[in-house]
Amino acid sequence: MEYGSKLLENAVNEISLLPGIGKRSALRLALHLLNRPQTQTEDLSRALLSLRENSKNCKHCHTLSDTEICQICEDPRRDIGILCVVEDIRDVLAIEGTSEFRGRYHVLGGKISPMDGIGPSDLTIDSLISRVKTEGITELIFALSSTMEGDTTNFYIYKQLAGLSLKFSTIARGIAVGDELQYADEITLGRSISNRIPLDYDKG
Q: What pLDDT shows up at residue 178?
């Protein structure tokens, strides 16, 4: 496609690198920004740069945060005894969108996947185990995707914490097997959290 402008072509090429954005959508977005007041483009640029330069991971739960400790971990209204284990920040946002969960989170940063070369040491599992042992956690909710890798990760963590006085549960299977958590609708996900079920690998 001939753009007639190298500046427009460069903008389209960069925007199209974003997930789910093809060249046509990138062109539409670039032209939209070009036709809006310059201040809007500047505000967007500053917001993205600030996100890239200033965001960090919470020291407690490892989710995305503006500060050393995220707002969720700092919230005194949260039930500090309940910890929900998720894969990444998108899952935290998905569950928060349901308004059904008032505990805290632990973000693993992925799931165990030998095929992809991801082992327990590549995740924040050691940090999770430390939190369970030192923060008075009474219930651990597994909210990983219903995939083989998700189930493998659940089982590994369960075994690492076996013997502790701890209730294990998993979100109800309103989430279809094989589905990614982040793509579930809020009603289904909310019900899965509310109707979570006890988890005991030792009983099969």
A: 55
Q: Taking the CB of residue 44, how many other CB atoms lie within 10 A of it?
A: 12
What mean pLDDT is predicted for residues 73-78?
A: 96
Tens of pLDDT, residues 95-125: 999 898 999 999 999 999 999 999 999 999 9
Please state the domain extents for the chain: 6-54, 57-203
pTM score, two decimals?
0.76
Quickly tell me which residue has 């740069």 as its tokens.
Answer: 49
Write out the two tokens for 29: 């977005």
Scored b (16 or more CB within 10 A) or e, 151-184 reads bebbebbbeebeeeeeebbbbeebbeeeebbbeb
Residues with Cβ within 8 Å of residue 113, at least 6 apart in sequence: 149, 152
Distances (CA, A) of 42 to 34, 46, 51: 11, 6, 14
CATH of 57-203, one of 2.60.120.10, 3.40.1360.10, 3.40.50.11320, 3.30.1450.10: 3.40.1360.10
Q: How far apart are CA 98 and CA 167, in angstroms?
A: 23
